[in-house]
Amino acid sequence: LKIAIFQDFKKQGFDKYFTCGVSSWKEMQFFEAWQSNLSGSIPVEYSEFQKITGFQLNGNNLAGVLPVQFSVWSNINTFHVPSNNLFGSLPSAYSTFAPTASLWFDSNAFTGVVPVEYSQFSNLLLNSQTGDLCVEDFSVFQDDFGLPICA
Q1: d(Cα 148, Cα 137) in Å, to the nearest integer?
Q2: Contact 39, 63 (CB under 8 A)
Q3: Engineering a disulfide at 80: which of 6, 39, 56, 63 sits with its beta carbon 3.0 to 4.6 angstroms away?
Q4: What's the CA gap between 29 and 4, in Å, rounded?
Q5: Global pTM?
Q6: How many CA atoms lie within 13 A of 17 on its CB side?
Q7: Residue spans of the chain under pLDDT 70
Q8: Which residue from 6, 24, 26 is spatially nearest to 16, judged by alpha carbons?
């Protein structure tokens, strides 16, 4: 399986996230589940997608922290998780992603300081946070994201 695109998991009989058989999906290159009514946390097992280039979980009901284990994704160029209920800090380990990677974290509840390493990303979205996310130094970022400077 190289590409997985899911729409509305509840209509397909899934109540939670999809992990069944993930270990056999090592060749997965693109995983998309937009507005699919996913709930629970993002499974750390997805880090086994060794060739992943695109990962999009926009507009679900996911909660929890971002798995730091995803930092092993050396080919990722799209990582979109906006409009969920994710919280905690943004993993500085994601700075291993290519500078051209598109990272969308907007409309979640992240807290803490945006890692300065994220300034390398040319397409970074952090707007509309309900958590206490802040930036220490706007001069290194291309946008202020509507976030406050850390106290």
Answers
A1: 10
A2: yes
A3: 56
A4: 8
A5: 0.87
A6: 18
A7: 1-23
A8: 6
